[in-house]
Protein: UDP-3-O-acyl-N-acetylglucosamine deacetylase
Amino acid sequence: MTTDKQQTLGASFELSGIGLHSGVVTHVRVLPAEAGEGRYFVRVDLPDSPQIPARVKAVVSTTLSTELGEGSARVRTVEHLLCALAGSGVDNARIEIDGPEVPLLDGSALEWVKAISQVGVVPFGSSPDSSFILQEPVWVYDGDAFVAALPAPLTRFSYGIDFDLAAIGNQWHSWCPGQESFAQAIAPARTFGLAHQIEQLQTAGLIKGGSLENALVCGSQGWINPPLRFSNEPARHKLLDLVGDLSLLGDFPVAHILAYKASHNLHIQLAQQLAQKMNVKG
Ligand SMILES: [Zn+2]
Structure:
C-alpha cells in the first residue's frame, strides 16, 4: 500500500464473469492510463465506445449497487473493482467492458486485487502531495443511519452494522490505508445477503446473477454457506463498498470516514458533499 499519487498498472489484465443484478456475463479488460486521466470505463460493446468517468458526477443510481452513466451509456456495480484499484494505489486506469455490469466474481475484491498485483502498480515519477485535508466535519444521515467525515491526522475508514439476525448482529471494522494491508484486511470480504429478502429482490428483477458461490447468505438459523473469511466479514464488506464509492472522488481526503448502517445512497451523498469541499470537478 502506497499513498503516492499518480500511479497506473504495469500491464493490462482481463477478468470475466456474471453481473449480480443483470445476470449478464461481461468481459473486463483493465489497461494502464496516463497520469491525470483517472479511472474510467469504456463500453466497448456500444457504438463509438462511450467513456464513463469513475467520478461522483457520473453516478446515476445507487439502488443496491452504484451505477455510473454518461449520455445513455451505463455501467453498474462498479464499487468492488473501483475499490480494488483505489485500494491498490491505481489512480489511473482504462476499464473496458462489453456489457452493462461489472462481474461479481466471488463477491469480494480479491480476484481484482490478485490480478492487479500480478501486473504490478507503477508510478509516473514524483508528483506533489496534494492530499485534501478535511478541516471540519461533514455528515449525511437517514433515520439512525449515517456517514460522517471527521478531521483526523490520517485517512481512516470505519463501519458499523446492526442486524436483527443473530449471526450478524452488531459488528464494526476500522481500516487505515497507510497502516494496514488492503489485500489482506478488506479485499477478501464478500457480498452478503439475507435469505428472507432474496425472493423479493428476485421478484423485483434484481440479483439475477446471485448465487451461493458469489454471496454469503444469512438466514434465521445462521449462515447458509459458511465458513466466513473473517468473523466480521459483513462489516468489512460494507467498508469495501464505502471505499469503492468514495474512490469516485479521485483521491481520498485526509479524514476519518465513519459509517453506520449506511447504504450506497448515503455513501454517494457524502461523496457529493466532499467533492464540493475538495473542489473536485465532479
Ligand atoms: Zn458490495
